[in-house]
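With this grant's support, we have settled on a layout for protein records. An illustrative entry appears below exactly as we store it:
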Amino acid sequence: MKSLIRVLLVAAVVLSVSQVRAAEGLDVVPDFVYGHKHGMALTFDVFKPEKGANGAGVLFMVSGGWYSHWRPPEQMVPLFKPLVDKGFTVFAVRHGSSPKYVIPEIIEDVRRSVRFIRLRAEKFGVDPERLGVTGGSAGGHLSLMLGTASDNGNPKAKDKVLRVSDRVAAVVAFFPPTDVRAWVNKTPQFPALRFEAEKAAACSPIIQVTPDDPPTLLVHGDKDKLVPLNHSEKILAEFKKNKVPCELLVIKGAGHGFGGEDGKRAGEALLAWFEKYLLKK
């Protein structure tokens, strides 16, 4: 995902939020707090069309290697502008980052972000039943976890956010790890994978697929050495077995991340998928 972000941000320039609004025709609300843990805030940035909002929202998982880095939101505008231009409201969600936090904790963070946005959907100008999620690499994994392992919330929870569903209506996952069982405690370069092995299945989207999962688009390069193409191929088979609307776009010759024409093609596929499944007909 880091390579994807790097490619898409080549044209980014440092602007103030007010300059971004004037130059790009969108509204930016930085550092919206959706929760706290260990005295620290969990935040996302909101990118809204100044006019022509279509009522659908897209959550972008800010995650590469399950590290969630902060960037000035104005630098993220080139990444999200194609979606905002089509009327989508984008939420750039940051989670508790590796190496402090591990995958089971990170998954709970992003689940909370969906619950929070659904609870306050009217405030954000979005339909809680028309939320999509996307991300690349670790962000793709988290997107698939939201698609395959969501719930309706806990009606008995003291925290009203936790009473709300974390279900999403569509998923686009770029080069996602779909099965982490073989990696847990065996990949020192990714501290987020250091957790109890018995939790690995619950953190593997391929194990969680059920017929009620949302429509899911997978985009993967056939030369990816970090997360091999078979991760997407195997979960695609599970989606098809369960009759979940799904597609796999294979980018020929691409590794872990897309640039140039490959990046353009991937971006167009993402936009088309969300227009198909999140816009009211």
Notes: The first helix runs from residue 2 to 8. Residues 1-20 have pLDDT under 50 and may be disordered.
